[in-house]
Amino acid sequence: VSPHGNAETRWEVEAYGELSVAGCIELAWIMGLIRHVSDQDYIGWVDAKTGEPVRDADVKARYEEHIRAHTGIRLIEPDLALGYDPHKKQVLREVQIEHDMAPFEASADDAAAYKKSNGDRVDVWENAGGASWSVRFLKGALVRVPAAVNATRLVAALLPTGWNATRFGIPEDIVKQADPVTLYVLVATVEALVRSGITDPYELYQHIHISEVGNTIGSGLGGAQALQDMFWNRGQDRETRSDALQETFISTIQAWVNMLLMSGAGPVKPSVGACATTVLSIDTAVDAIQAGKAKVMIAGGVDEFFEEASAEFASMGATSNAVDEFARGREPSEMCRPCTSTRNGFMEGQGAGVVVLMSASTAIACGAPIYGIIGMSATATDKQGRSVPAPGKGVLGSVREKAGATAASLRKLSVGHRRRAFETQLRMLDAWRANELELLAEVEDPEAQAEVDEQYVRQRRALQDAWGNEFWKQNPAISPLRGSLAVWGLAADDIGLASFHGTSTKANDLNESEVVDAQMRQLGRTPGYPVPAVCQKWLTGHSKGAAAAFMLNGVLQSMRTGLVPGNRNADNIDLKLKKCDYTVYLSKTVQTAGIKAALLKSFGFGQVGGELLVVHPDYLLATLGRAQLDEYNAKLAQRDTKAARYWQDTLVGNHPFVQVKQHPPFAPEQEQRVYLDPTARTQYDPKTNEYRF
């Protein structure tokens, strides 16, 4: 859920600079410009205002100009910023009155409150009849008067104009109760699930236990509207939700996802890492899967754009000053300028990004589309200092290596060497199993034989881990990044792009360029073979907690297409970056022969540095035998068809996009049994069209 709509419409603008007809239809629907009708007289799209029929082929010509003007980075629209109008930014100023004011009528309680607060500077008395009281402020009393002041942050990356959670099917009562950031996450979660071929979350429990689906979705600030209710509206004695407090908790966001969609009982680890929240969320989710605590994790981040945060970022000098940028003759879309000599602060934005992470075996078994492999995830803090937002180089720890490593100590980098070692130890394990089963054959003990087989499988998996994914761990001669590449037979030259945090601040873009350059040098990348830098925020702005989710989806789309999107505001690359020989800063999209691997960086306030290595999914699929691959592809085709049908049915109004659950997948009397039985699985009931235990 981004300033350019969903993941696919954002990609069209990022990669191609324009929307396709299909992209225009999706965004026009998202923005409420068109709706689908089906009656006796007409089946198709109509203009939402006039009801006039609109052909599919005419949507682009009719609406694209409006869509482009009301998506992405643009002048702030109050309806999308919790009512904030930067041209009428209000503050309360204290004024001392110089003469007694005329009395006004108030209730007895209000009159007593004024007297309690102002003492002898106010007179109160009961009116005749006792039905009301009068209040008069006297000379010297202090009153607070609203004053409109000018703001300098007039531009932001906002959701498409007209974005409405109810259009996606979220019930009105939920819209009124939950904070808007939760609504963004609900829509993003359903999109992530549907793009994973999962149109009903309860279907997951047909493949894995309900305790094996977890959630690490987090946020930098959490429920902004709820925070305003607590600290502003409550203090102004305005009508405020009674449950505003719960919506300020960052853990509440993932709670709504579970309550309305998932009904899972797996690991819950809400993540908070400011602008690096999504990478922190993914890193935590990866740890949960690799530790065996879960097989599926929902990860991601979300943040809002609102007045208070905009003002505080401005006071820090962190964000782009629109007044200055307009004076330089720039349009709003040109104001976020990563890695240029004229960059002058990040462009604040809003939105949510969610990803579905599965263990490889789970994804293959259920036929889920695999868009990429998380080859490595890492986080790091930085050095001593006094600046909370200052970026650092702690993430260089991912290429830490002992100097002077011998060729013998690096043999494990070779897939051939590891395969030989694995096969040698596997033969020894096979011999142990055969010997144990031969001894047990005389006593005919099936349980003992089953125990031997269980131990054999466990030890075989340990061997696969030792020589496959974990051979580099605790080896000072092999860095985590080099080892993670070597797992798939890759090296530094196989990194096809680097997705930059690229905030358009003076400090970050220089620091990040130096980090990537140092990593490539340490890994031995071929001189003269630079890594293309993708600086997505020129288009999306900086959505804080959701930023790395937008970036990761972009990386996966680059792997799918081979395209490396350019930064179309990069018309004057900073000369200070010239020393970074291993990075090239593109200003237009380039078609490559394919991208094998990519690096993604994220840096958050509070010394939260994060990094992902993403590997092309073909490297996983290539490990499957022909029969297993054919079986997987058959399941995948079914999921792709089902997912496409789900989205089409949403657009034409056959069902809502977000289908809120009305009950868990089990009856009340089944609940404890389901939690206690690791083999409990849902079954599809065609009569009710539901998955139930």
From TrEMBL:
EC numbers on record: 2.3.1.86
Q: Which UniProt keywords apply?
A: Acyltransferase, Transferase
Superkingdom in the source lineage: Eukaryota
Q: What is this protein called?
A: Fatty acid synthase alpha subunit Lsd1
Which species is this UniProt entry from? Coemansia nantahalensis
